[in-house]
From TrEMBL:
Residues where heme binds: 444
Organism: Rhizophagus clarus
CDD domains: CYP503A1-like
InterPro entries given in the database record: Cyt_P450 (IPR001128), Cyt_P450_CS (IPR017972), Cyt_P450_E_grp-IV (IPR002403), Cyt_P450_sf (IPR036396)
Cofactor requirements of the protein: heme
UniProt-annotated location(s): Membrane
Domain of life: Eukaryota
Name of the molecule in the record: Cytochrome P450
GO cellular component: membrane
Transmembrane intervals: none
Keyword Transmembrane attributed: yes
């Protein structure tokens, strides 16, 4: 009788895997970068040597090429082929590719997470309720930024060192957002604010699980990371409970007010009121309030950590450059005197040096690759002539575009805080090369709010504190594979008075 050892089974398994997963590249496709280790392909370089590896691939194979990572062929796009993605939103889908990494459809069980259709609603909500209401929201943003700074940073009469400042900045940035989302009454409860503040951070570990099982099948990774949720573990549940407990009495009071006052009812200016005005709103039905709270959570995902990330990066960029801090302080002081400490939208527009600095800081976000999409049409031909088949995963080489000499000049790699000054190129302006907010039809609709909040935060901070890095140097961001995170080193806060 033939005895089969585990080792033999393993070898047969690997051979079958190799045959099944071997990339097959069509004749008009972008070139596949050669690799030496079967199955593993470029995975090691992709994770541990991303910057150099992708740069060298582009130099050798051109603006558009494919690599083999985690058992799949992925096409890397830069320059004109990258722009093609933004120009052809019907052919590329960000949501389905993002859901693979962060399975929102399993976490937000009442609204089913995000899909192309529901994102239209969130984009409309953002345009109408958040970015479209800067004038109305600015007072709330200012009030709660100051409260947040008081709580998180304090007086700093003695110098105070803060490590991992993203956490702290996230707390400050989340407070105004909570207030314009659920209104001042519900947001007066610390547990609700904490929930909105921590929601995305709590899901961070899911992002960090390397998709090892994708070597066998993409769906296997998704299946395993969502397994705990099938057994009832859901990190969103307790946040949903907290938010529902806090908003339910507010909804009841508002409905009573509406009944009593009729036409004289003065609508509140927050997202909660916006949801209450949706035709499908009926909080008495068991699944209705959780459904709207899940929508609120999508808005929280897209707004809180993104904006706090931008603000934290800018804070580190500022703290490492004392001469810049002095120059921005002069501008802040002039505007503060003119508006007597109470900012309007027009005052924020006057912060032109700060705007240029924030834009430069965003340009230096240092993500190498970003915005993974699936190509969802039968096939797609780029303007450079290459074709990819339906179902192909693509990712954008954003760092290459954001640091291109062609668009940003010979010093494109340098950090020049006033690069955009007097160039009619505000931080909110999306164009072919400035792609931190994406581009085309899906370009981030929240960018107007995000930039306003970030500028107002920095303005108030610069007026009150001197900030510097503990090391006295410009701090680098942390790199995890192709993605970056804000530095975790110490920042020193010192009261100006
Ligand atoms: C600095 C902060 C932010 C950054 C860097 C950022 C970045 C982005 C990016 C890159 C996209 C994808 C664009 C594309 O597919 O072309 C996006 C989409 C989106 N963002 Fe933002 N965002 C920020 C803040 C916000 C805020 C504050 C909100 C809401 C209050 C928001 C709401 C949205 C929505 C609803 C979409 C989906 C748009 C669509 O698919 O049509 N974002 N954002």
């Amino acid at each position: 009788m033939i005895e089969v050892s585990i080792f033999q089974i393993y070898v047969v398994f690997i051979i079958i895997l190799y045959i099944i997963r071997r990339p097959r590249i069509g004749k008009d496709e972008p070139p596949l970068v050669p690799y030496t280790i079967p199955i593993l392909g470029h995975t090691f370089n992709y994770i541990f040597n991303t910057k150099k590896f992708i740069k060298e691939c582009k130099e050798q194979y051109g603006e558009c090429f494919s690599i083999y990572v985690f058992g799949h062929t992925m096409t890397i796009l830069s320059r004109s082929s990258l722009t093609d993605v933004f120009r052809n939103p019907d052919d590329f889908d960000l949501t389905s590719a993002t859901n693979e990494i962060l399975p929102l459809h399993q976490l937000l069980i009442y609204n089913g997470g995000t899909c192309r259709e529901s994102v239209k609603f969130h984009a409309k909500t953002t345009r109408e309720q958040v970015s479209g209401k800067l004038d109305t929201n600015i007072g709330v943003v200012q009030k709660y930024l100051l409260k947040g700074m008081e709580k998180w940073i304090g007086d700093c009469n003695e110098p105070k060192i803060v490590y991992s400042a993203w956490n702290m900045v996230n707390g400050i940035i989340a407070l105004p957002i909570a207030n314009i989302f659920v209104g001042e009454e519900a947001a007066s409860h610390e547990d609700l604010v904490k929930s909105l503040e921590n929601l995305a951070f709590d899901l961070g570990p899911l992002f960090m699980i390397p998709p090892i099982l994708s070597f066998i099948h993409q769906k296997l990774h998704e299946f395993v990371i969502t397994l705990p949720m099938k057994f009832g573990w859901n990190p969103v549940s307790r946040h949903r409970e907290t938010v529902m407990n806090r908003v339910r009495p507010v909804i009841e009071t508002r409905l009573k007010e509406k009944n009593m006052l009729g036409e004289n009812y003065k609508p509140y200016n927050d997202l909660l009121e916006y949801y209450m005005n949706q035709p499908d709103f009926d909080y008495t039905k068991p699944k209705n309030l959780p459904y709207h709270v899940d929508n609120l959570f999508v808005m929280t995902f897209v707004s809180v950590n993104t904006t706090s990330r931008a603000a934290a990066d800018a804070l580190y960029d500022l703290a490492g450059r004392p001469e810049l801090l002095n120059e921005l302080y002069e501008e802040a002081l002039t505007i503060d005197r003119e508006c007597n400490g109470s900012l309007t939208v027009a005052d924020v527009k006057k912060m032109v040096k700060l705007d240029s600095f924030v834009k430069e800081s965003l340009r230096h976000n240092d993500n190498i690759l970003n915005l993974v999409h699936y190509m969802i049409s039968k096939s797609f031909t780029f303007s450079n002539g290459f074709t990819i088949p339906g179902g192909r995963k693509i990712i954008l080489y954003t760092d290459d575009m954001l640091k291109s000499k062609e668009y940003f000049g010979v010093d494109a790699e340098e950090f020049e805080p006033f690069r955009f000054l007097n160039k009619t190129s505000p931080a909110t302006k999306v164009d072919r090369s400035y792609i931190v907010f994406g581009g085309g039809r899906h370009a981030c609709p929240g960018r107007f709010f995000a930039i306003y909040e970030t500028k107002m935060f920095l303005h108030k901070l610069i007026l009150k504190y001197k900030v510097s890095t503990k090391s006295g140097k410009i701090e680098d961001k942390l790199l995890i594979g192709p993605f970056s995170l804000p530095s975790q080193s110490g920042i020193v806060f010192e009261n100006r008075n």
